[in-house]
Amino acid sequence: MPLLRHLLLSICLLATPLWAPAETTENQSTRQAGTRDGLGKRHSRIEHAKLLHTRAYEHVEAGEAEKALAIYQDIDRRYGSDPQPAMREQVAWALVGLGYAHGQQGRRDKAIAIYQEIDQRYRNDQLPAIREQVARALIGLGYQYGQQGRRDKAIATYQEIDRRYRNAPQPELHEQVTIALFNLGVTYYQQARYDKEIATYQEIDTRYGNTRHPAVRKQVAMALLNLGVAYNRQGRHDKEITTYQDIDTRFGNDELPEIRQQVVNALVYLGDTYAEQGQKDKGISVYLAVEKRYRNDPHPAVRQWLAQAMNGLGFELLMAAKREWANPQQAQDRLQQAMKHLQRGLRRYDQQQEQELTAMLHGNLGYGYFLQGKHEQAETRTRSSLRLGGKTLFDGQLADARRHRIEPLDSDYEALLKRLWQALGGQSKGLTPAG
C-alpha cells in the first residue's frame, strides 16, 4: 500500500534540547565564593549551577525524570535570588527545564504554573539570554494550553510571543517567534480555521524566508512543508506541487541534517502527489531522484524518508506490473524492480522505531512475492505486516488487490489476507522479522 500521508507536522515545543546545560553569556572571570561537589572539588557558584544542569541532563538521559526535577528545583532554591546576569540565566534555564519535565510527566497544571512564574519573574529582564528563556517558557505555556484543549489561550500565548519579540534583533529570538507562529498555524488547523492556518505559514516565509540563521531556516522549511500539506488537504494540487518544488529549490543544497529532512520529506510528498494525480512517471522519477541524492546520507531521519520513497517507488512499480500483466516479460521486469527497491527500503532505517513504515514495506513485499508465485515468502511478509499494521494494513492490502485486478491471483491473495488476519485474531502485535 502507498504511504499514509501525515496531514500535519506536530506542534513544536522547543527547537533545541531543553535538558542540556546552557553556556552563559557572562564573563566567567567574575567569581564568587565557591561550593564543593560530592568529590570535594571547589567550584564557583556559576560552575556549580552548570554542574547541576549537567547532572539533571544525565538523569533525564537515564530515564530518571524525578531526580532531574529535584535538581532543577535545587538550582532555583540555591541561586534564585542571585542578581548576577549569568546566574539569572542559569536559574531561568532550570525553571524552563522544570516546567518541561512536569509536562512530560503529564503534570500539566504544574507545568503551566511554572511557565507563568518564569514570565512573571523575568518578563522585564533585558538580558538577551533571559529574554530567550522567557520566550521558551511562553512556548511551553502555549503548548500545555493546547494539550488541555484550551486552544484560545494557546493562540493568545503564541500571539503574545510574536508581539513581544518579533522586532528583537537577536536570531535566537527570531527562532522562538517562528516556533510560536508555526504552533499558531497548527492550532488554527486544529480549530478548522484553515485560511488562517495557511496565512500563518505564509507569514513565516514572508518575514523570515531570507534569513541565514540555520535554526530559523529550519522553521521556514517546516512551515512551507505544512503549507504544502494544507494545500493537499484543500485539493489545491498545483499550489501544493509548487510549494514542494520551492522547498527543494531553496533548501536542497543545505547541509544541516534537520533541513535535509524537510527537503526529502517534501520530495516524497511531491512524488506521492504526482502518483495520486495519475502522473505515475513523474512520481517514479521523483522517488528515483530521492534515492540517488540521499542513498548515502547518514542522518537517521533522512534515511527514514528515503525508505518512504522506496516504499512509494516499489508500490508504483507493483501497480505498473499489474497494468502490464498481459505482457509477461515486462510485468516480471517491473516486479523485480519493485522488490529491489522495497528491500532497499527496509535496510535504510531503524525498523523498530517506524513500525507503520515497516508494516507497509512488509505488506508490499508480501504482495510482490505473491504476484511472483513465491507463496511461502508472501505469507511470511504478509503476516509480519498485519502484526505490525493491524486493521489499517489489512484494509489497505485489500484495496491494493482491487487495483488493476488480475484474476484469479487477486482473489487468491484476498483469501490469504483474510486467513492470516483471522489467525491473528485481528490483533496488532510486535515485529516478527521476515527472512
Can you describe what's shown?
The protein is an all-alpha fold and 435 residues long. It has a domain at 42-148: Serine Threonine Protein Phosphatase 5, Tetratricopeptide repeat (Alpha Horseshoe). Helix content is 71%, strand content 1%. The chain has 17 helices and 2 strands. A hairpin with a 5-residue loop joins strand 1 (35-36) and strand 2. The longest helix has 28 residues, at 375-402. The protein is elongated, with a radius of gyration of 26 Å. Residues 4-8, 14-42 and 429-435 have low confidence and may be disordered.
Provide the descriptors you would attach to this structure in a database record.
435 residues, Serine Threonine Protein Phosphatase 5, Tetratricopeptide repeat, mainly alpha, elongated, single chain, two-stranded antiparallel ribbon
What is the averaged pLDDT score? Answer: 88
Give me the Rg, rounded.
26 Å
Total count of strands: 2
The CATH C-level class name of the domain at 42-148: Mainly Alpha
CATH-assigned fold name of the domain at 42-148: Serine Threonine Protein Phosphatase 5, Tetratricopeptide repeat
Flag low-confidence runs. Answer: 4-8, 14-42, 429-435
Q: Helical percent range?
A: over 70%
Report the β-strand fraction as a percent range: under 5%
How many helix segments? Answer: 17
What structural class do you assign from the helix and strand content? mainly alpha
CATH architecture of the domain at 42-148: Alpha Horseshoe
CATH superfamily of the domain at 42-148: Tetratricopeptide repeat domain
Biggest sheet layout: 2 strands, antiparallel
SSE run: EEHHHHHHHHHHHHHHHHH
Distance between the first and last residues' Cα: 20 Å
